[in-house]
Every structure is written in C-alpha cells, then in structure tokens.
Write a structure and sequence with these properties.
single chain; alpha+beta; Rossmann fold; Dna Ligase, domain 1; D-amino Acid Aminotransferase, Chain A, domain 1; 5-stranded parallel sheet; 5-stranded antiparallel sheet
Length: 431
C-alpha cells in the first residue's frame, strides 16, 4: 500500500516510524515532514493545511490511505475532502473535529451525556467575562474556545492574572479567532493523565495510558506549552481506575457519539484529571496527542497500518491490539524562549552520539542541504532547529526508572544553543 501522513511534528515522526515497520507498505510519504521524517518517508513540499494540494498529491500518487496528524487540517475538513475524492483517510470528519476545535461544543456534549467534567460558563463579550472574574473562585481556568496550538489555556491564580488573561484573549486577541469565545471552568485539582483511544462508529478501544507535562518548567510551573514530555504507562492508572474511566467516560462517550450522529472515526484523545472524586474529562482532542504518541507507540507490538484500516472500515472490534510490558518515556527538547518568542536555525549536534536503541523523534527541525557557497557561521550543513519543540528523546526499558535514567543520559549528548527541557518527566506532579 501507499500511505501519506500529513503533518510535520514529533507525533507525525512517531506515526511514520511505526508505519514504516509494516510489511504491507510499499511507499510512505509525509507532507510536509521534517528533518527526521525524511530519513524514512518521502517528504512532499505541501503545507498540512493545503487541503486542495494534499488531495491532488494523493490522487496523482495513487495513495491508498491518508493519515491526518494535526488538528487544524481536521477542523478544516481535510478528511471530508479526501473522502469526496474517493481516497481513504484516517481521522475524524469536520463535524466530529468540533470536539477539539470548540471547547464549548465539547463541554455541551459532556454535560448532555452526563460525562464527568468541570463546571463551566462560556462568554462572548469581554465586559461580561471581566464581570465574572472569580465566578468559580481561584485558581480560575480560562480557555480560548478555538484551536490555539495547545496554548489557549490560562490558569489564573489571582484576579489580576485573570484580567490580564482576558485582555490577552479577547482584547489583544493573541489567539486570534480562537478567543472570540472564552470558556471559564471550575478548577480541578489532582493528577493529569491522558488516554488515547481508537474509535470507529461501533467500538472504542483505549490504548495504553500516558501522562503529559504541559508547563514549561519543572514542578509544572510557568506557561502552558504543547507538551514537554510524557511517559507510558501512567503511574496513576490502576485497574480500578481504568475500569471507572471505561464505564463512566469511554462507554458514555461512544453512546453519545451514536445518539448525536457523530460518526467519529480516528483517535480520540481524552485529557483527564484524576481528582479525589474520580476521573473527570478536561478536554477531548481528535487526534494522537503530542508528545504522548512518542511514548505510547514504541510500546505497540501490533501493525499500526492494520489498525488504521480497521478503523476506517468500521471493523475495529476485529483487531486485537498487543502492547509491550516495557515502560517508555519521551523527553522534549525545546528552543530557548519557548513557548514565547524563540529563534530558529540553531545547529543541532550530538544526534549521532545517542544509543542505537534510542528513538529521536524530530518535531521542529529542518535538514540543511549542501550549498556551493560557504554557509554563514552556525548555519553549517546538517539538522537545524525550526520550531519551538525541537526533538523528543524516547526510550523504552523494563522499568520506568531505567527508562528515565537512559533518556536523560542521551539528552545530555545532544546540544543546540538555548536548548531547554524538563528534568522531572516520568515523576508524578500534583496540580
């Protein structure tokens, strides 16, 4: 089969890495890919949001399956467009993509189907929101309704911080149209965890659990990011908790999809807060989480292509997904200044010094091609930084402690100017 993966991040690198192991793939493409993906797939110079261009490329190359990684092209209706062209695509359609593209849509869905979540209010006028500061007490959780690259959530500890967040979102519009509506939620304390699930119209199957680290600094301090690391399985997922999540969240979610006419096919990312009153849904995403994917897929023993095809054909119930008993961890290396302003084009060294069994998933990188003229100092040929989250260093081992130890040993061999990373990945952090 010929398969095209859409996206350019660490998540897409992990997906490509796993798909490349399938004996049934004769040609693997990625659009646009990155400096690491191009070593295992042919990268096409197409923006992930170029719906028409991706459809044309898929037709021209007679692609059998398109796997859509990022949330924006899903929300734009890329799966719908591919289906209209007769091309099989893995990922939810535009209607279902609202589960991530609109916080208020998801909160309404959760409330309607009695799925545990935080209390909430939604606002479309800045003045009304300013008058509602402290409505649920403090900390105050404010979420831009639309897509904001994983950064549209502010947890304000004081009224002053809340006012600033409101001015940023609805006044200065730092998240653009995503801030036209703001959802205010009751603050939930506990331990955050993630569950990725394969879903078709008949079945929901959870993958192995993972835990993400959202904030930039150790101890879960500082601003939100797209995710600074992850490990799998999560330390908080006991058998009892997993059963509770299945009966109180996953099964009602699937039933809700069916009742609401949401023909969801793809990956449902369930963001959870494990509170003293049980698990509650923080958010739904419509795709593989990043960087959770980089910790979960290395533990998958089944052929990922078989699973993708089963989901698209509504026969997920026929697939027995097998997982390794090993533990895994992914440590994200980010650019200096991230998640704020950061520079690109920094030379990355040490990639050839990591252990052979360590997976380096590229996220914000670009491969510098050879030039006739001498490049400027610091811009030599090789892999350069090209984003906020640059690399993910992933390790599997028999124990989590061993995986952590080896991950950070290998992180220490990699360098680029301004490189920053969290040192508490793989440890429990209470919120």
């Amino acid at each position: 089969m010929k398969v095209l993966v859409v996206g350019s991040g660490g998540r897409e690198h992990a997906i490509c890495w796993k798909l490349a192991q399938s004996p049934n793939i004769v040609k693997l493409y990625c659009a646009p890919g990155n400096g690491g993906i191009e070593s295992i797939a042919e990268c096409l110079p197409l923006n992930a949001e170029d719906v028409e261009g991706i459809c044309s490329a898929a037709r021209e190359r007679e692609i059998d399956l398109v796997v859509v990684g990022p949330e924006v092209p899903l929300a734009m209706g890329l799966v719908d467009a591919l289906s209209a062209c007769g091309i099989k695509a893995f990922g939810p359609n535009k209607k279902c993509a609202q589960l991530e593209a609109s916080k208020s849509f998801t909160k309404s869905f959760l409330s309607r189907h009695n799925i545990p979540t935080a209390g909430y209010r939604e606002f479309t006028k800045k003045e009304d929101l300013l008058n509602a500061v402290g409505i649920f007490g403090f900390p105050m959780v404010l979420k831009a309704d639309g897509l904001a690259a994983g950064k549209g959530v502010v947890i304000a500890e004081t009224p002053e911080e809340a006012v600033k967040a409101i001015e940023d979102m609805m006044g200065d519009r730092i998240f653009g149209a995503a801030g036209d509506k703001v959802v205010v939620e009751e603050y939930l304390s506990g331990i955050e965890a993630s569950m990725l699930c394969f879903v078709d119209e008949l079945t929901i199957v959870p993958m192995e659990s993972a835990q993400d680290y959202k904030r930039i600094f150790d101890g879960d301090l500082g601003p939100n990011t797209g995710g600074m690391g992850s490990y799998s399985p999560s330390l908080v997922f006991t058998e009892e908790l997993s059963d509770k999540i299945r009966t109180e969240i996953l099964e009602p979610t699937l039933k809700g999809f069916q009742q609401d006419g949401l023909d969801f096919k793809g990956v449902l990312f369930v963001g959870l807060m494990i509170t003293d009153k049980g698990p509650k849904v923080i958010e739904f995403n419509n795709r593989f989480g990043d960087p959770e994917t980089q910790a979960v897929l290395p533990r998958m023993e089944s052929d990922l292509l078989d699973i993708f095809l089963a989901v698209t054909e509504n026969r997920l119930n026929e697939i027995d997904i097998k997982w390794s008993g090993k533990k895994s961890i992914c440590v994200v290396l980010a650019a200096g200044g991230y998640p704020g302003t950061y520079e690109k084009g920094k030379k990355i060294t040490g990639l050839d010094a990591v252990d052979a069994d360590v997976m380096i998933f590229h996220a914000g990188t670009i491969k510098k091609a050879a030039e006739k003229d001498s490049p400027p100092v610091g811009q030599e040929n090789g892999i350069l930084t090209n984003g906020g989250r640059v690399l993910g260093v992933a390790v599997t081992a028999d124990t989590l402690d061993e995986a952590r130890k080896r991950a950070f040993e290998n992180v220490s061999r990699i360098y680029f100017d301004g490189m920053q990373y969290r040192k508490d990945i793989g440890k429990l952090v209470n919120k």
